[in-house]
Amino acid sequence: MDFASYIRDIEDFPKPGVNFKDITPLLNNPEALNKACDVLCGFASHMHVDKVVGVDSRGFIFAPLIASRIGAGFVPVRKSGKLPYTTISESYELEYGSETLEIHTDAIRKGEKVLVHDDVLATGGTASAVCKLVEKLGGEVVQCNFLIELTFLNGAKKLNGYQIEALLQY
Taking every annotated instance into account, which residue ranges of this chain make up the domain Phosphoribosyltransferase (predicted)? Predict the structure, then answer.
């Protein structure tokens, strides 16, 4: 399937100079959505995964589907102040400020194998922070997978040492 044909470019969003990769056309097409999920699950088919971590907010689209299909639990990682139970946090730098992500302290047990999923790998800051959260709880990141990797932003360098898979690369 030509997944790229379901990705829409939005110029100057969310700010001038940014070419946003809009995944909503893919999500609107049941066949493309299902086949994209098949490929994302296939990336992890050769390994045991206990938990799939989805990153706030677009990582929440595929991560629960992947978890359900591969027989793993789903764990949300959210922006600061959005989770109701005891959390740990990790802050990271953005090009225009900083962000903090949180995870429930009981979401991952020591030794659990974890797949980290987000919609886009850009600069790598978000995914790197999520991997740190998983490891603080004693989990082992076995893969980071993404719907899209923006290779020109070199985000994979921040994830050096982790297995990275992406459905599409730009």
Answer: 48-148
